[in-house]
UniProtKB/TrEMBL annotation:
Residues in Reverse transcriptase/retrotransposon-derived protein RNase H-like domain copies: 101-188
Domain of life: Eukaryota
Name of the protein in its database record: Reverse transcriptase/retrotransposon-derived protein RNase H-like domain-containing protein
Pfam families in the cross-refs: RT_RNaseH_2
Gene3D superfamilies noted in UniProt: 3.30.70.270
Amino acid sequence: MQYIERVLSKFAPINLKISLKECNFGQQELLALGHKLSGLSLAIDQNKVAEILQKPVPKNIKEMQSFLGFSSYYRKHIKNLAHITSSIYKVCPKDIVFENTKERRDAYERIKYELTNAPVLILPEFELPFKFYIDAACSQGLGAALHKIQILGSEPREGVIFYISRQLRDSESMFRATQTELLFLVWNL
């Protein structure tokens, strides 16, 4: 309760008002902004995922861009999203006629699968060690995962804090794997 009072006391000097009917106090879990938040974790709101699962494969560029925007919002939950979406992004410029190829349909279905099976992200605890994994072996993009070592009972276990990825630029796609991994380390710093 003391933390709530501290936060609310900061609102008055800047004339910020809150609506009590929009507030949730003392909750173990909270659905907000498409996420399910708990004390130590962040998960995708399954109601949002259910909406996407019911939608058919996009039929035009606008529908595909809408889907890409949705999946990009949850990019922290999807390992190597840039690699998965690389075939889809090739069709997004306005001067290209949209063709729903097998490769694009497969990418669409894979993203839907990844969204429905996305890990629950854990919040960092800075007292415990972290592990940072990078994957720059593919010519499509860069991917990484930040993990935290958790002690559950007496056994250590790794949990995902977030995934990050991006596509390679044309000039970067000619790098060898070791050069690409170094590029990725520089990009993340």
